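Figure 6 in text form: structure in, sequence out.
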């Protein structure tokens, strides 16, 4: 959408608008006026494209920010719920490990409250 040709047209148009008064002062009033008019239309076209791109970019950023905020809020809610559940229900983790002695078939159970 924002192409090199548009930037080039804007630059050339702005240059023509800037040079038009100098050309008029040098005695070429018709040429200066033509340069000014052509430059204005080219620069205006480039500005229109720039404004359209800025509007699309702004809308995209607003949408992304909205969705990111919603995702962050959901994550914060999940963390709060998990913490609340941990406080209300103690968790008991039991780990079974074989005894260090390979000859015995005993299993050592370690209970760790979390």
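Output sequence:
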């Amino acid at each position: 959408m924002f192409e090199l040709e548009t930037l080039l047209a804007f630059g050339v148009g702005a240059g023509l608008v800037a040079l038009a008064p100098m050309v008029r002062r040098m005695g070429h009033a018709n040429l200066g006026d033509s340069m000014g008019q052509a430059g204005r239309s080219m620069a205006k076209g480039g500005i229109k494209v720039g404004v359209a791109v800025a509007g699309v970019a702004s809308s995209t950023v607003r949408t992304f920010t909205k969705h990111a905020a919603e995702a962050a809020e959901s994550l914060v809610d999940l963390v709060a719920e998990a913490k609340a559940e941990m406080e209300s229900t103690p968790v008991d983790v039991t780990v079974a490990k074989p005894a260090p002695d390979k000859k015995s078939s005993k299993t050592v159970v370690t209970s760790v409250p979390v």
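Caption detail: The mean pLDDT is 79.
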